[in-house]
Model the fold of this input.
Amino acid sequence: MTKTLAEARDYAGGLAEAILDRPELAGSVQAFIIPPHTALAVVAEELRGVGERRGVETQVILGAQNAHWEESGAWTGEISVPQAADAGARLVEIGHSERREHFGETVETTRLKVRTVLDHGLRPLLCVGEPREVREAGEAEEFILAQARGALAGLDSAQLARVLLAYEPIWAIGEQGRPATVEELAEPFAALERVYGAQVEAVLYGGSVNQDNAAELLEIPGVDGLFVGRAAWGLDGYLELLETGASHVRGAHGRLRQ
Done:
């Protein structure tokens, strides 16, 4: 729950302009932003307006933080995938740990949401991650793969190719999170790469990502990009992270999806 309409509009416009002004970003990294539902339409309008003024397509993907699996109905307080798409979203975040902990999101509801998002031509961004006690018990790999398998069950190869999978260990996210070390992330990313690396669009890492650790995180085998929270709340911070991603691409002579 960050940013008013005016703040969200300024951020989106500044981001779109900056990426278009910096060829090393536009040709190297894929930026996305996921504002609160109240700001979706104004952010979409601003991104579209920047593109129209510059005579090019704005290269920022807009996402919604959540959406219901039903297309309509008596679900007070929710929004549907068609409503999110109508407001300009092209991506929907699903299964964030805060949604699971505070709002009862389950493996089954994530499966329903993934299917509905795909049915409407949007990208699902599925979040998986284990709590500290699971990590300490040595069961992280089994836990996150179960979350992913449950949510992605029944999808064919074409559908899986449109999925973004974000690994966010619960103990490493949020204001109280402890940044994970490269050594701690090697095993879960090896597991995700083994099972899903060749099937999904990208596997991202999120969890206390900041300007100090982004370059190191991008070097982890299996990490295709980053899913950033508070370090990107300020536009300068996000642009610095995108520059880090672009530098990584230049060093790897490839293309990074961030």
Notes: DSSP finds twelve helices and seven strands in the chain.
